[in-house]
């Protein structure tokens, strides 16, 4: 009995994952056998479960390597998992009042979100190429289903099929890269790959393996040129599902990208640094210009997310602890802005249905001044204007690039931000200066709370959460170096 207790105590670093896995299975079984349970009740239970797991993660700061080295929990993993859990809970919350309208009023939606979140947490803590793949596929398979959950909608079905086909392609690339890395290093454990590279020096086969591996992960963060699925899937999927896609999975994939590059391929930083710089520049530039012609809100937000991935990669391009700290801060602020803007989108409804285009926002400031003000704040923050949170996010990653003499990359980033201001400010112009064309429905209470909270944090970032977040991110980055 004592040995059983000791064995269970040794699993302390994995308590959050174990709790989430058991909780998701219990929620699934209860929902299956309790025929009268509503999807809203299941979603509320799922939100509560995610918050409990988040509390366990933060209040039980256990670290270590488990399961024969394939699962690692360090400061970086705990930081990124906190963002994933917070993002998942927030996106479930903002979908409560819109589930029926968007065709996701089924208990399976909340269960699939829980399973996808579990996959993301495994991804963040993956210390082996095999556990990396298992976490990635657990997340992806759940996301394929929720993308096409509105089965009677042709756009949603198309989005699910596109995401599945291109996701399978990216998984194949990732596995091929993993097989090459294993063939040339003799190990699949992330922390042992670096030792093998140090002993045998760099080989062309290893470089090819690294390229395919990073290409597979780049698909998950929607970095150019692996972004082709993003606008169509964002537009076709139900809006609450799009909000989830834009938040938590991006953070998990970025955490995976950071761990693989900085830990596994540390000795060949110069090689992967060139790949990351290319992905960063391509993402920033393409998103800045491609979004200009968009009128559909979700397509515009898709290109916006591609651009922000590019900005985050500016920090990783530095290949330093300061750069990783900048990415960590950027992703936290990015999640807050993403949840806020999608809460605003979900809150807007006219007599014709949910607002889908920018032109439908005409006169919003006269009809719904609170929502218009929050959207304006978020647009200015997405541009990166001081003293809003978005400014400090970009400041951190550009500073890391400049410290490593990547001046051209930083300049391109600033210019891309200037170009992106056009389509962000266009939304503000339509809301405040165009004549109203429709009446807007009342805003649900939980969405008002989310919008107010995010707006407050974005405006007061420097004096409220700035210092604690920076300290947490600094500790997280330090655990990788």
From TrEMBL:
UniProt function note: NDH-1 shuttles electrons from NADH, via FMN and iron-sulfur (Fe-S) centers, to quinones in the respiratory chain. The immediate electron acceptor for the enzyme in this species is believed to be ubiquinone. Couples the redox reaction to proton translocation (for every two electrons transferred, four hydrogen ions are translocated across the cytoplasmic membrane), and thus conserves the redox energy in a proton gradient.
Signal peptide: none
Domain NADH:quinone oxidoreductase/Mrp antiporter transmembrane intervals: 126-419
UniProt source species: Devosia insulae DS-56
Residue ranges crossing the lipid bilayer per the database entry: 12-34, 41-59, 79-97, 109-126, 161-184, 204-229, 241-260, 272-293, 326-348, 369-393, 405-425, 437-463
Family the UniProt entry places it in: Belongs to the complex I subunit 2 family.
Keywords from the UniProt entry: Cell membrane, Membrane, NAD, Quinone, Translocase, Transmembrane, Transmembrane helix, Transport, Ubiquinone
Pfam family, one: Proton_antipo_M
Name of the protein in its database record: NADH-quinone oxidoreductase subunit N
GO CC terms in record: endomembrane system; plasma membrane
Coiled-coil residue windows: none
Gene Ontology MF annotations: NADH dehydrogenase (quinone) (non-electrogenic) activity; NADH dehydrogenase (ubiquinone) activity; quinone binding
Domain of life: Bacteria
Listed PANTHER family: NADH DEHYDROGENASE
Membrane topology: Multi-pass membrane protein
Reactions catalysed: a quinone + NADH + 5 H(+)(in) = a quinol + NAD(+) + 4 H(+)(out)
EC number: 7.1.1.-
Gene Ontology BP term (one): ATP synthesis coupled electron transport
């Amino acid at each position: 009995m004592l040995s059983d207790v000791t064995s269970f105590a040794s699993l302390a670093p994995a308590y959050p994952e174990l709790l989430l896995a058991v909780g998701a299975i219990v929620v699934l079984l209860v929902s299956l056998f309790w025929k009268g349970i509503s999807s809203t009740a299941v979603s509320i239970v799922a939100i509560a479960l995610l918050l409990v797991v988040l509390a366990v993660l933060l209040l039980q700061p256990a670290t270590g390597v488990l399961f024969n080295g394939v699962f690692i929990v360090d400061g970086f993993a705990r930081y990124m998992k906190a963002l994933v859990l917070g993002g998942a809970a927030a996106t479930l919350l903002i979908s409560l009042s819109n589930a029926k309208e968007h065709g996701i009023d089924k208990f399976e939606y909340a269960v699939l979100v829980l399973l996808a979140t579990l996959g993301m947490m495994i991804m963040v803590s993956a210390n082996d190429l095999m556990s990396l793949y298992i976490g990635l596929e657990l997340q992806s398979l759940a996301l394929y289903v929720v993308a096409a959950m509105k089965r009677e909608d042709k756009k949603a079905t198309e989005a699910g099929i596109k995401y599945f086909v291109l996701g399978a392609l990216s998984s194949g690339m990732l596995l091929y890269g993993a097989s090459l890395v294993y063939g040339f290093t003799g190990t699949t454990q992330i922390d042992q790959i670096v030792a093998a590279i140090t002993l045998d020096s760099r080989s062309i086969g290893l470089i090819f393996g690294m390229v395919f591996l990073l290409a597979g992960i780049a698909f998950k963060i929607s970095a150019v040129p692996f972004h082709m699925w993003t606008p169509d899937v964002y537009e076709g999927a139900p809006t609450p599902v799009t909000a989830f896609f834009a938040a938590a999975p991006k953070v998990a994939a970025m955490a995976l990208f950071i761990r693989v590059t900085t830990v596994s391929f540390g000795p060949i930083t110069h090689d992967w640094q060139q790949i990351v710089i290319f992905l960063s520049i391509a993402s920033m530039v393409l998103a800045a210009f491609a979004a200009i012609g968009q009128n559909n809100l979700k397509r515009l937000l898709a290109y916006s997310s591609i651009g922000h991935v590019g900005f985050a990669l500016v920090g990783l391009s530095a290949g330093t602890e300061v750069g990783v700290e900048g990415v960590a801060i950027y992703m936290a602020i990015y999640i807050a802005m993403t949840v806020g803007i999608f809460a605003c989108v979900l809150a807007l409804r006219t007599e014709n249905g949910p607002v889908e285009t920018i032109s439908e926002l005409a006169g919003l400031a006269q009809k719904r001044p609170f929502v218009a003000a929050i959207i304006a704040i978020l647009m200015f923050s997405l541009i990166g204007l001081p003293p809003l949170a978005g400014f400090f996010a970009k400041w951190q990653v550009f500073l890391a690039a400049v410290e490593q003499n990547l001046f051209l990359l930083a300049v391109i980033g600033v210019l891309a931000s200037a170009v992106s201001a056009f389509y962000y400010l266009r939304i503000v112009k339509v809301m405040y200066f165009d004549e109203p064309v429709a009446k807007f429905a009342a805003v649900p209470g939980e969405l008002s709370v989310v919008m107010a909270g995010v707006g407050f944090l974005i405006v007061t970032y420097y004096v409220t959460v700035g210092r604690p977040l920076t300290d947490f991110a600094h500790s997280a980055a330090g655990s990788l170096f």
